[in-house]
Design goal:
With 253 residues, the chain is an alpha+beta fold. The protein is 43% helix and 17% strand.
Amino acid sequence: MSAYQAKDYAKAQGFLRASVETDPTNLRDVYPLALAYLQAGPTEKDVDGLFFIARAANLAQGAGKDQIAKFGKSKYNKYHGSEEGWSDVLAKTATVTLPAADFTIKQYVPPTPAEQAAALVKSKKVEEMSFAEWQLVLSEGAAADADKVWGVLKGKPLQMAAHIISIDSAGKATKLALAGSADDVEAKRADIDLTMTAAIPAKQMPKEDTDFQFEGTPVSYVAKPFVMTMNEGALLVKSVPKPAAVRKKPAAH
């Protein structure tokens, strides 16, 4: 939205607001005003928009009432982070026609990656975490959290599955670049450098862009962009869990 469009949109909001203040029971003005406030951009006013969309749900009749309420609930959930309190807003706007100066709705602010990492370390044993969760803590976590995870992983043989990005069989020991988290599998980005104990025999040589089950011992890592270096690699034949994803929570809009 350009500056000129924003100015025109603000004028339209003002016109609708004045009309609603004159006749607060006119759904034909209340509903458009709610949409105008909820429209993303420089004129967005989420709290007012949520008040008036709830007000519109109270004024509507028939099927439209449920549709507006459902839409308002989804907008509230997105802004607040949960449905908690939505019924209170609906109840308030059944009789209150305009938002008071102190009317507010707390906006959900997603935790930062570091906060997510800290919560993960507190709630889950390192041995029970997925590779993607190790990656989150080691790349985004506070030093103390990263040290706690790395202290458990370093030098310990791990059995896992990853996706093969590339294979280097030129030396005495085969080296593989692997993606251990689902995000990196999708991005085709290696987050594990694995060196086998010896060259993989031709009849057992895996193919690039396939899943690979192995045992490896972590020896070092780089936090960003994240890469874990492993040695003492060995082939596995038994099934192990596939790469998992840890989706960082989106930032507030």
